[in-house]
């Protein structure tokens, strides 16, 4: 061998003749079944191949590869292993000069076939499979970095390589024999190494060709339903490919999810779970440039699942049945996946996603149109749950950007829905968006014994953006809290959510003015619970009283002066002794302890406005205590169209019809004789008139600042209608015919301006 190597290196031009002779000799010995000489000839060619310089290696390669083909076509497993080992050594040689006529198609096909070996001897089977995997790894190494070589990324090659690797990975997942081989000789271990190397070398344009066979393999072997193997495959993929290409994998999965929209729920749920895991793994680039398209696809699947759940079939022909439990599992998976994707986005894109989801939530009478009422309700619940998933980890320093009017108004409109689940979801979403210090988790159990020391309180005053937000949206938030308490279908969860929301508001956004307004709101809720005109059950009334007690107890520990805390504590102690049903402990439990018959509340159990106002006097809150003189009353808006109440347009038109001053038919002329005493009284009462005028102007300004656009438009429309009626009266007087000599004007069917007079009468 040393002499042969020396001769070959001394005369490299004779390498092709040497290789041809060795190949001919190996073929002869192979045909005569002299496998010992075959191994010697193969080893000689390997030694020459490794000893030659890169410039002259092409003279050897053709004979070498043809020899390997002969060995791989034989029916002896040990020859297959020998050929594969030689090919791997050849693949590790770096060549400087490319070969344009070299083809590896046969090797890709043969090595892939070896990966599927079903030899009866398990040890030999594993050795053959490991050899096939190493052979594929050698083909990849030899071709993937050289653009002039055969393109290994073509679909015809990938459709052979990828399934061959997945079969071995799959069998290791389901059946493993401990202690059969060392880990380095395990087909699964070699498969994972080869698969990772293949994917790590994939460029941008090759990702699709590498992923498509994976999806086809999982489909054909029904591996989505087991989920564990599919998740394992895509974990390997996401960890192996270059991070900037990960969004291509996500797009492939989303497209595959759409393609399987008429597949069983278990298949769709498996794809969704893989999507969720893939998003968690690649947290920086998994969504890519088409952010909204990702969420649009997931929301479309969610809506489609709701339709399948209602019909009981997952196809249009009505032949393939599905169950509500399967679709529910899928819906939960989609919602979880939406949250996983949202958590990978920067803050500003999460805001866009929340607006996008809000735009997809169907509103009765508004696009997108609903099918059946039950379908619309379920879609609303699913999309609000998705919105809650996005909002739970949303952290923003600026609430003006987190809760813009385009998002807040439609969200708050759902608090007026009759469905209690929808109202509870909206309260949870509001709380999670406002709660930037994660105090909501510490406030899950409403209690009058709550200690604020467990809360994370802010150390500085509200920022300018927070003050602008609360000034702009405070009345809107208070109104919806008030109207939620008026709902008869509110339960324990709603009242606890209200306490949490009010507590988060007081921690995050409270200043002196906000605290006073919150106390006014609570006092209004207390009056609501006492009002005999409200159709509230005993539980509802006790629940509202408990909300007031729990929140005021918490608020009294956050900064107001000690007299305020003293009054709240005294009322709570009176309730604990004689009316425990007005406290959270007895109301917000599995079996509420309520009084029999009609609820009677003694004055000692109530929070008194005058005492609260007196307690705040002399502190920093005293500048705003005059606001207590005006009881809180919510302003009804056009959002009431979503519930059973009348719209604001009906309310305003009804008020105009009932108010005598707007009735055009009843005109009364008030005449008053002006005397010296009249003028004197007018001068003396000027101060009160100016105060009334100032208060009226403030009400107008407040209405235009806080009221929705629809309410302002309805009010202006009512005034326009009044002006039109006045103009009609004026025109009627103008065209009225002159009285006749008899004193009676005959009725005229045609108005004066419509009569055509003769030409002689026209001057």
From TrEMBL:
This is Protein EFR3 homolog B. One of its GO terms (biological process) is protein localization to plasma membrane. It comes from the Eukaryota. InterPro entries: ARM-type_fold, EFR3-like_ARM, EFR3_Homologs. Pfam families: EFR3_ARM (PF21052). Signal peptide: none annotated. It comes from Dicentrarchus labrax (European seabass). Belongs to the EFR3 family. GO terms for cellular component: plasma membrane.
